[in-house]
Amino acid sequence: MEIFNYSGPDFDIYGDQQYDPLVLDDGPWPAPTATEALDVEVEIPGSKSITNRELVLAALAEEPTTLRHPLHARDTQLMSEAVHQLGAQISEVEEGAGRYGPNLQITPAAELEGGVSIDCGLSGNVMRFVPPMAALALGPVTFDGDKAAHKRPMSGTIEALRGLGLDVNDDNRGRLPFSMYGTGEVEGGELEIDASSSSQFVSGLLLAAPRFKKGLTLKHVGDAVPSLPHIEMTLESLRNRGVDAHSIDERTWRVEPGPISGIDLTIEPDLSNAAPFLLATVVAGGEVRIPNWPLETTQVGDLLREILPQFGAEVTLSADGLLTCRVERGIVQGGSFEGVTMDFSDAGGELVPNIAAVCAFASSESKLTSIGHLRGHETDRVTALATELTAIGAEVDELDEALVIRPGELHGAEWKCYEDHRMATSGALVGLAVEGITLDDVKSTSKTLPQFVELWEGMLAGDTSAPVETDPTTNGFLTTEL
Ligand SMILES: O=C(O)C1=C[C@@H](OP(=O)(O)O)[C@@H](O)[C@H](O)C1
Ligand SMILES: C=C(OP(=O)(O)O)C(=O)O
C-alpha cells in the first residue's frame, strides 16, 4: 500500500487521527502504583535514532531500502514526511508487519526537490539531519516546528550550512524557524563547527556528506561534544551502506564522496525506551525481560547493562538476545539501594531523566554530572527534573551541569511533562511507589513510544502481549486509546 499520496497541506502519512486528542487523550493520567513484584517480557518498538538515520540515507541512496520493524512514532513520522517532501517515495511492505506497524520500502529521490516547508515538530533528529540533506535540493526549503522547538539550539547546523556556501535566513538567530536556499549541489571539503550543544549537528552533516562533491572533513571546535556514541552510530550506518566514513580523532570526522547503497535492514529495539521498563524493577522489584536486545550495538541504551547493577539489579544477556533484569527486593517490597554518582559526558542525555527519577528512592545522595546539554533537549531537562523531583518531596540541588538528589519524604503531586517523553516516563517510574502522582501530559510519549501507556499497564498486569489496538483509518497501527 502506498503510504504517500502527497496532496498538499492536508497530507498526513498515517491518517489524521494518530495524534488527535480523540486517540491520545489530552487529560491527566494517574500513574499506577505497583502492588506486586514484576514478572514480564516487554517487546520494545524500533530505535528512533536508527530509523531516522536510515530514512535519511534511504532518500539519498542509489537503490531502494527496506526497513523492517522501524519505529512508527511522531519523530519518525515527521522524518518520513520530510524526506518524502524532498522527493523520496515511501510505501508499506505487504508482508511481515511487526507488532508495532508495517515494514517500509523507501525509493530514493531521483533529484531532491526544494520549494517545501518542513515541520520538525520537536524532533532534534529532523531539525538537525534534514537541513544538510536539503542543501542538495534545488530551491528554497523552510524549517519550523513546535513552539518548544524554537528554543532548541540550531546554530551548529545553520553556521555549517553557511560554511558550505548556502544562503540561510534565520531571524530567530541560531534557532528555528529558518529558511535556506539550495543550489542543487554542495562542494563540501573541510568545515569547522561548534557541536558542543548537540552531537546531532555532526551526525546530520556526515549523513549527507557522501553526496557532497568533495565529501566532508568535519572538525569540531569548542567544548566537548555530547553523545559521542550517536556519532559512532552515524558512521556505522554510513559504512553499512558502503560509504567510507571514519573518525580521524575525537573531534574530527571524514566522509568520502561516493554512492550510498540500498539496504534491507531490521531495526534494533530502542534501548533508551527500554530504560523505564528496566528501571521499574528497581522500584517495583521482580523481573523484566526485553527480547531482541542486540548483542552488538552503537545505541547508548546498551549502557543500561552497566548502569542497572549500580542500582542493585542483576542483568544478564543471553546469546539469543534476551535481556533479563532482576531485583530481589524493590522499593515497594522495602528494599533499598545507595545513591549513585554518574558522569554522562560519554553517555548523552537520553537515559538521564529516568535515572534521576529512580535516584529519588536512594537511601543516600546521588550526583549526576556532565548533563548541561540536556538544557537544550525537548525541554530544559535539568530544571524540569529539579522542579518535579522537588515537588514530590526529594531534596534537589540544580547546578549548571549537574543534579544532586537527596532522599526526602516522597508524596503525590501533579508531575509536569513539559512535552518531553522522557519526563513523562520518569513520572511513571516515580508513580510506581508513590501514590497520587498524576502526569499532566502522558501523550508526550507519542514522540518515540506511542504505546507507552499500554505497555506500562501491561507490565504491571504481568502481560504485555495484548495486540496493539488498530484502527483501519490509520493504516492499521498506532491508535492506542488512553
Ligand atoms: O543522533 C541522535 O539520534 C541523537 C543524539 C543525541 O542528541 P544530543 O547530542 O543533542 O544530545 C540524543 O540525545 C538524541 O535523543 C538522539
Ligand atoms: C533528546 C532527545 O530527542 P531529540 O533530540 O532527537 O529530539 C531524546 O529522545 O531524548
Please describe the topology of this protein.
Layout: E1 29-30, E2 38-41, H1 48-60, E3 65-68, H2 74-85, E4 89-92, E5 104-107, E6 116-119, H3 124-134, E7 138-144, H4 155-163, E8 167-169, E9 178-183, E10 189-193, H5 200-208, E11 216-220, H6 228-240, E12 245-249, E13 252-255, E14 264-266, H7 271-284, E15 286-290, H8 304-307, E16 314-317, E17 323-327, E18 341-343, H9 352-359, E19 366-369, H10 381-391, E20 395-398, E21 403-406, E22 413-415, H11 421-431, E23 437-439, H12 452-461
The structure holds shikimate-3-phosphate (S3P) and phosphoenolpyruvate.
In short:
The protein has twelve helices and 23 strands. The chain is α/β, with parallel strands linked by helices. The site of phosphoenolpyruvate has 9 residues, from helix 3.
Residue windows where pLDDT falls under 50 for at least 5 positions: 1-23, 470-482
User: Count the helices. How many?
Assistant: 12
Ligands in the structure?
shikimate-3-phosphate, phosphoenolpyruvate
Global geometry: globular
- Cα radius of gyration in angstroms: 22 Å
Query: Could you say how many structural domains there are in total?
Result: 2
Would you tell me which CATH topology of the largest domain applies?
A: UDP-n-acetylglucosamine1-carboxyvinyl-transferase, Chain
State the end-to-end CA separation: 28 Å
The percent range for strand residues is 15-25%
